[in-house]
Write a structure and sequence with these properties.
The structure is a homodimer. The first copy, chain A, is mainly α. Chain A contains nine helices and no strands. Chain B binds a DNA duplex through residues 10, 12, 14, 16, 18, 21, 28-30, 33-34, 37, 58-60, 68-76, 78-80.
Chain lengths: 238, 238
DNA sequence: GATAAAAAACAGACGTGACTGATTAAAACA
DNA sequence: TGTTTTAATCAGTCACGTCTGTTTTTTATC
């Protein structure tokens, strides 16, 4: 938004004054302030990713959005690649938080089928949020950006692992379903990510709703498969 | 702005009717040469999209890749946006050709289930080709590029319609399946596009194979649904 | 039909604006 | 006062678009 300095929101100094402040020796007040500026800059960077798109982000815009001068920012992040790396890791953490928050927010009284359906809807909300949109853009950009690929390769793996562990604990009824749990997660993941990535399709909401319902039915089918007549229908081929 | 496709039609009128050249060649040598250069430039542009990624493409690189000078290119495409628009439309046509070619290449002796499976594999080959990767990148970039969004919005619609018509004629056994045909196409489209977009996942081939087999089974299910006990299972909800 | 004029295609150099990183000056703090 | 943090300015690079000049093809005139 507006440029202006508005001087870094002077946070209170807690009467630190004399420098005694043995109360917090490890983290000096300067360090706190520095860390706050860092976070402000990283938040601004994410914001720029959302509003401008990864390729249109410049150091000047991030600094402006954060309300600091370029000099100040370059003090914290000496070069653009270092800023990008920090911002991507920051985004990665926010993504994890977002997914975890949405899934753990499912009422505990929901059980069985209703709970699984709520999980689908939570994942869809996660996928259509700004954070995932930006993350997806980064993944695409990484095809021709080795540095970005290096940064994302690890976080991608960590994210999948985290999602899997979270799901294993929150949907523990799949515990004895073995590989069928992985199949269910993959079907959900790729079908919904495919839908999320198609921004320009016609009849979006109608098709999304139909496919989401279809997916929910398939997950029930996979879950109950051991008890139905459809055993082994899609385990191997070719 | 709009640079209509056929540049060669810019022939002058030769109003001074000497009458001698009433049978003048409709397409002069000059026009042919111009069109050839145009196509060389557009091919080079697509190539740059593939090798460098949309965001790293510059007019100089395209000209260099095409083997013409920047001045020559600027003569055919006065500005970068005009070049991009022409290149995107060119890419769109190549995409249509690619899909059509792959699907029509399915042996006619394949029938029923085997034919449907071949369709899935053909679509997967299409999605993992360079052309679709680039198209997907453009789609992502269009989020923060209004001009690109305008160009893609129409081509996206045209592509879906073309695919639908092609499939209707090549998989005519779905003719009386009504909406279930649309469902089958959507499930295929989004699940496979979701897989294609995930470049960095672990165990890629194994998971892709499993999901592809799963998808093939689901399509058979949808196709046979009218004759099975599963009628109406996933037609409506909320 | 030959030749000159006109138009189109092609080629390269220049200026402008934007972005990055470095350097220097000011301010806040201990 | 001395050090750390913030602000402002400078130089180098890159990409784009305009400009001018050259070659090739078409049209007009004799």
């Amino acid at each position: 938004m507006s440029r202006t300095k508005m001087a870094p929101t002077k946070l209170k100094k807690t009467a630190a004054g004399t420098g005694a402040e043995t109360g917090s020796p490890d983290i000096s007040w300067q360090a706190q302030k520095s860390a706050m500026t860092r976070d402000r800059i990283l938040d601004a960077a994410i914001n720029c990713f959302v509003e401008l798109g990864y390729t249109h982000v410049t150091t000047a815009r991030v600094a402006d959005s954060a309300g600091v001068s370029r000099g100040a920012m370059l003090h914290h992040f000496p070069s653009k690649p270092e800023l990008i790396q920090a911002a991507v890791e920051y985004l990665h953490n926010k993504l994890l938080e977002d997914y975890t928050a949405r899934v753990t927010a499912i009422p505990t009284k929901l059980k069985g089928k209703a709970r699984r359906r709520a999980g689908i809807d939570a994942y869809w909300a996660h996928l259509t949020g700004d954070l995932f949109v930006v993350y997806h853009e980064l993944l695409v950009a990484s095809r021709t950006d080795p540095e970005l690929e290096r940064i994302l390769a690890s976080s991608q793996q960590l994210f999948e692992q985290h999602v899997r562990e979270t799901n294993e604990s929150l949907f523990s009824e799949w515990q004895d379903r073995g590989d069928r749990f992985l199949l269910a997660m993959d079907v959900t993941k790729f079908l919904m990510e495919g839908m999320a990535a198609s921004r320009l399709m016609t009849d979006r909401t109608a098709r999304v709703n139909r496919l989401t319902n279809y997916l929910a039915d398939r997950l029930e089918e996979i879950f109950l498969e051991g008890d139905s007549s459809a055993v082994g229908r899609h385990t191997k081929r070719s």
